[in-house]
Design goal:
Elements lengths: L3 E7 L3 H14 L2 E7 L2 H10 L1 H5 L3 E5 L8 H8 L4 H4 L2 E7 L4 H8 L4 E6 L4 H12 L4
Parallel strand pairs: 1-2, 1-3, 3-4, 4-5
Length: 137
């Protein structure tokens, strides 16, 4: 089975990160899982963690509502990152937000590949895998 070399979970809820880590490991979708508690922490991680950048392809599962830097603010800063690095990363919003305007706003972001509702499901992971990893591996 193909799998992501690495996944970065960005969510301010530590319990959600923990549960999603358990699920992803159980389902076998990643070799390595990292976590960040907000968008700012995730940006710093991307800029400094060579292991994540070198383990291609990679996935970022991004929450919308977080303190310090929310998912949309992260995406605004993300677009300024190195194009070579971004070319190997799939960014998907994984949120409990049911606001239609969030989904519409997400749809306008070039670097965002998917918008999914929590909780994370095996079917969602299979869909992201089929869409974005098969072509990159």
């Amino acid at each position: 089975m193909k799998k992501f070399k690495s996944i970065l979970l960005v969510d301010d809820d530590k319990a959600t990160n923990y549960i999603h880590t358990l699920y992803i490991n159980e389902w076998g979708f990643a070799e390595k899982i990292y976590t960040a508690l907000n968008g700012q922490e995730a940006l710093e991680f991307l800029k400094t963690n060579e292991e994540f950048r070198n383990n291609k392809p990679s996935l970022i599962l991004l929450d919308v509502n977080m303190p310090v830097m929310n998912g949309f603010e992260f995406m605004e800063a993300y677009k300024d990152l190195d194009e070579e690095m971004k070319a190997t990363i799939v960014v998907a919003m994984l949120t409990s937000s049911l606001h239609q305007e969030d989904q519409e706003r997400a749809g306008k972001l070039d670097d965002l590949k998917s918008f999914m509702n929590k909780p994370l499901s095996k079917e969602q992971m299979e869909s992201v895998m089929a869409q974005f990893v098969a072509a990159k591996v």
